[in-house]
Amino acid sequence: MTSEVNEWYKGRKVLVTGASGLMGKVLIEKMLYSVPDIGCIFALVRSKRGKSPEARIEDMWKLPLFSRIREEKPHMMKKLIPVTGDISHDKLGIDPERLQQIYDEVSIVFHFAASLRLEAPLKEGLEMNTRGTQRVIEVSRNIKNLVSLVHLSTAFCYPDYERMAEKVHDPPANPHEVLRAASWLSDDQLNLLAPSLMQKHPNSYTYSKLTPAFKEPKPGWVDNLNGPIGLMIGAGKGVIRSMHCYGHYHAEVIPVDNAINAIIVPDIPVFNLTTGDDRNTTWKEVLDIGKATVRKYPFEGPLWYPNGNIRHNRLIHELCHGAHTK
């Protein structure tokens, strides 16, 4: 980490939503390992499957992701403070005493929490990803010494734009009006309006494009099956036999550590992180490399011999997919 970045974070206290997600965990690991003088990190975590946020953080420390902190800088683990909360609740569901501490002490907010379900009902997506962000902004406005609020999104928020400028583009519909309508419309009524609200968006989330870590903290580390990861593992196990796309299309995917390294750099209002024109890899190349790799280093317990193909014709894709699943 550069001295300029280290100096900027020195002594500062940070709030992270979505701390237990892939991006949240990699951000926390990077900050604790590479920014020794950071004040502390408040990690917003909700209770899940009967486990408290404190228990979930304890489980998180055991992951291979945090091995270099456990081995080299175990004292930094004390700088991660679990905060019980949920972006689906007003004031993020944070205890009033803890919330006041955040108002008084935090100066940087990273908002990563979101619903990642590709086919989530529109109401769920609005509640988590739109209203949830609104709640984070409302809390951030009360932080006395706020210097930065970083909102993580997808570079493909506007799939109908031929060129994405590094600015906040106008949404297809007024988000405040949509949220007001969602508060009284039923799920079925809102789903009927979904096509006109989403327009050219294929779903209420619009893709997930992170790949395993390139270098830090461990090459190849990942802990979920979202987006391209699920596709790669499914194909490697022989489960996915057909992929519907054009093979010459570019695979716009980013290693998670590259994304985090870009996010923590201060003073960039809007930054589109994509592969760029000089590092374009096509989906056919991804498939060919994947086939060669999985044959050299096969997965445990494959369902079938991994030998899928790309098909741009939807009918042929569905016929092949159906034949393989029967």
TrEMBL record:
Q: Name one Pfam family in it.
A: NAD_binding_4
One annotated GO biological process: long-chain fatty-acyl-CoA metabolic process
- Extract the SUPFAM superfamilies matched here: NAD(P)-binding Rossmann-fold domains
| Keyword field contains Cell membrane | no
Q: Which reaction does it catalyse?
A: a long-chain fatty acyl-CoA + 2 NADPH + 2 H(+) = a long-chain primary fatty alcohol + 2 NADP(+) + CoA
Q: Where is the Thioester reductase (TE) domain?
A: 16-210, 215-263
GO cellular component annotations of the record: peroxisome
Q: Recorded GO terms, molecular function? A: alcohol-forming long-chain fatty acyl-CoA reductase activity; alcohol-forming very long-chain fatty acyl-CoA reductase activity
Catalytic activity, EC: 1.2.1.84
Per UniProt, the keywords (alphabetical) are: Lipid biosynthesis, Lipid metabolism, NADP, Oxidoreductase
Q: Does the keyword Repeat apply?
A: no
InterPro entries, per the entry: FAR, FAR_NAD-bd, NAD(P)-bd_dom_sf
The family this protein is said to belong to = Belongs to the fatty acyl-CoA reductase family.
Per the entry, what this protein does is: Catalyzes the reduction of fatty acyl-CoA to fatty alcohols.
Record protein name field: Fatty acyl-CoA reductase
Q: Which organism is it from?
A: Leptidea sinapis
